């Protein structure tokens, strides 16, 4: 058990005079408590006005992504005592419009996803007696792609997104390559065409912030490099 101070960035859109401000809370944190557990304690016992998103508590839904001591992570996976500090600063994900307190608008995330058509596209009719099959080798190509939980941490950490709000974002580009690399998808051009512009694939400057920010240890930068290869092959071919 340790007494921890939480400095939480607050924002109430209905209070224009106050705007953004930092509020401090102190609570006793037992061993094993995640940041989400602490936020729940603060909301349920100290300040019911605190606003944040959460759902699964298992690192699957991505709802509780936020900036913790300057680093993007999931609140439900962050062990507070493991941070080894007496003060924990909690902010909403940077780069996105803030709705209230730690909750940000998901519009930029959804806009990027819709652009890349993140679903399997085929031309041939589906088999009548079985599903569309893949070899183990073909299936292995999707490892490191399908695990994305769309928390938005990667795009929030990207300087290209900070500079260009029309940038599709590494989360969407990773999802695009997940289908381009899928042997069952018969329309890779449908995923590639929307990202072949200055607000898409070519806005990435290979900074690798997205790799460091991903709570699932995925590599959007590698996926982006593979997408560039696919586009160049198509143009040269």
Detail the topology: elements first, then pairings.
Elements: E1 2-11, E2 20-29, H1 35-46, E3 65-68, E4 71-74, E5 87-91, E6 98-100, E7 103-104, H2 107-116, H3 136-140, H4 153-156, H5 159-163, H6 170-180, H7 188-192, H8 209-213, H9 220-236
Parallel strand pairs: 1-5
Antiparallel strand pairs: 1-2, 3-4, 3-5, 6-7
Helix pairs in contact: 2-6, 6-9
Give the H and E element order: EEHEEEEEHHHHHHHH
C-alpha termini separation: 63 Å
Strand content: 15-25%
Largest sheet: 5 strands, mixed
Level-1 CATH class name of the largest domain: Mainly Alpha
Mean pLDDT: 95
Strand order of the main beta sheet, please?
2-1-5-3-4
The total tally of domains equals 2
Tally of separate helices: 9
State the oligomer: single chain
Number of strand elements: 7
Q: Kindly name the structural category.
A: alpha+beta
Name given to the CATH homologous superfamily of the largest domain: Alpha-helical ferredoxin
Structure in words:
With 237 residues, the chain is of the alpha+beta class. It folds into two domains: 2-104, Ubiquitin-like (UB roll), CATH 3.10.20.30; 107-236, Fumarate Reductase Iron-sulfur Protein, Chain B, domain 2, CATH 1.10.1060. It has nine helices and seven strands. It has helices spanning 35-46, 107-116, 136-140, 153-156, 159-163, 170-180, 188-192, 209-213, 220-236; strands spanning 2-11, 20-29, 65-68, 71-74, 87-91, 98-100, 103-104. It has a five-stranded mixed beta sheet. The chain has a two-stranded antiparallel sheet with strand order 6-7. Helix 2 (107-116) packs parallel to helix 6 and helix 6 packs across helix 9. The longest helix is centred in the C-terminal third of the chain and has 17 residues, at 220-236. The mean pLDDT is 95.
């Amino acid at each position: 058990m340790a007494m921890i101070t939480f400095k939480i960035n607050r924002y109430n859109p209905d209070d224009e005079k106050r705007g953004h401000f930092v509020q401090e809370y102190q609570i006793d944190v037992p061993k094993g408590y995640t940041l989400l557990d602490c936020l729940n304690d603060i909301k349920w016992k100290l300040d019911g006005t605190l606003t944040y998103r959460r759902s699964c508590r298992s690192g699957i839904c991505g709802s509780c992504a936020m900036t913790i001591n300057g680093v993007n992570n999931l609140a439900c996976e962050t062990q507070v005592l493991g941070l080894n500090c007496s003060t924990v600063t909690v902010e909403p994900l940077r780069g996105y419009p803030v709705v209230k307190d730690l909750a940000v608008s998901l519009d930029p995330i959804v806009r990027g996803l819709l652009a890349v058509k993140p679903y399997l596209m085929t031309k041939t009719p589906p088999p009548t007696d079985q599903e569309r099959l893949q070899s183990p080798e073909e299936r292995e190509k999707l490892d490191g792609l399908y695990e994305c939980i769309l928390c938005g941490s990667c795009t929030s950490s990207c300087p290209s997104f900070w500079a260009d709000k029309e940038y599709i974002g590494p989360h969407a580009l990773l999802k695009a390559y997940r289908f381009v690399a899928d042997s069952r998808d018969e329309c890779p051009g449908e995923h590639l065409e929307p990202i072949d512009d200055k607000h898409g694939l070519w806005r990435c400057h290979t900074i690798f912030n997205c790799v460091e920010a991903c709570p699932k240890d995925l590599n959007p930068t590698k996926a982006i490099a593979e997408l560039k290869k696919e586009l160049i092959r198509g143009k040269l071919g």
